[in-house]
Amino acid sequence: MRPDTPAETTPHASHTAEAERLERAAALYPEDAEQLLLQAAAHHEVAGDRDRATALYDRLLALPAEQPVLVRALKAANLWEYGHDAEARAIVDGVRLAAPRSPEPWIIVAEALEAHDELESAHSVFTDATELLVGDSTHPPREVRPLLFGRHRVRRLLGADHDARDELADRLHEAPVPLDELHDPNRLWSLGSDNPAELRAEIDRLRAELGTYRAALSRPFPVAVLHWPEDELAQLLAAHPALTTEFPSHEAHLAAVESSLRELATSGTPHLGTVSATLPSYEAFAASESTTPTDPSLLPLYATTLAARGRAKAWPPANDAGCWCGRGREYGVCHGAGCVMGRGDSPLTTSRGTPR
Fold it and tell me: What is the C-alpha to C-alpha distance for residues 261 and 316, in angstroms, rounded to an integer?
């Protein structure tokens, strides 16, 4: 959620200009306003204009945000940086009570607590999050692993002995330098050492950390399957009846989405996700491509574009998390329970191919 360019290499005025550009883009593309405004708020934070960042978070919270808990977490971290400690703590408590099913809000509030030397509280947040999102899994999804790594780091700062989750974090950590070295509280001393060997070892550790961050930033966006919510699909077919052959019914469409995702998973395709379509967004995309919305070959391009804009939601969700279809049931008793259709039953549109 943060700009990739650090503040020390980009003038504050440039960050402010970029934030204002993103705010103008959000007005032009309301379907992407949440992501654009979150990036704008991040640029305001880097520029030191934290009250403007808070104003953007408040603006997002006044709208039907897709990720309200994430927005609140970002607002809390920002408030803390310019002296609104009490309000920030209240928001952190609210985030914990909400128990979000995505790792980002947990990571943000835990790292905010850690940055302000509230290590016991940070440890408690990381622990709650790992119990909720990792559970008993020995191979948790990549996106939740930073919770284990963060908990390991805080426990090292607290001088706590390794437990089972620390051992799991050690096993999952892929950098050549072990976590115990990366999270060693005594590393700061080596930075002031006159011993070339100690300095070389610290440089190697820093390179390992940088490699981990670069790997996270360079992961490809998900291979996304296009999902039409029921009301949006009804509007699509009413406006463009020619697409009825592509989407014979909403139930068939939902089953086809799940079937496509399972086929991709079976073939070994990584980074799977779903992207939700809307008729205005799709028609605007068709206009930008100078083609008609009834062209079936446009559907995979639209899915790819939504995924590239950060609109994809990872698949599969946890069995006890809400199903991707948006009907309010848990995935394990909804589309995760089976009963998927075959490839010939309905067109499947992915971001790496054409409708099946």
Answer: 8
Tokens of 144: 């939740």
Burial of 248 (0-12, 13-18, 19+ CB in 10 A): middle
CA distance 315 to 327: 16
Would strands 223-227 and 272-276 be described as parallel, antiparallel, or unpaired? parallel
Dihedrals φ, ψ of 318, to 5°? -60, 150
Could you tell me the two tokens for 200?
């070389």
Position 293 pLDDT exceeds 60? yes
What is the share, in percent, of the chain residues with pLDDT greater than 70? 83
Q: Which residue type occupies 344?
A: G
Percent of residues, the chain, with pLDDT higher than 90: 37
Alpha helices in 134-270 (DSSP H): 145-158, 164-172, 179-182, 187-191, 196-218, 230-239, 250-266
Overall residue count recorded for the chain in this entry:
356
Burial of 39 (0-12, 13-18, 19+ CB in 10 A): buried
Please state whether the predicted TM-score (pTM) of the whole model is above 0.85: no
What does the pLDDT look like over 143-172, one tens digit per residue?
899 999 999 999 988 889 999 999 999 999
203-234 core/surface letters (b: 16 or more CB in 10 A; e: else):
eebeebeeebeeeeeeeebbbbbbbbbeebbe
Q: Which amino acid is at 286?
A: A
Q: 211 and 339 in contact (C-beta within 8 Å)?
A: no
What does the pLDDT look like over 244-257, one tens digit per residue?
Answer: 999 999 999 999 99
How many helices (H) does the chain have, and how many strands (E)? 16, 3
Q: Are 19 and 44 in contact (CB under 8 A)?
A: yes
The Cβ-side half-sphere exposure at 215, using a 13 Å CA radius, reads: 12
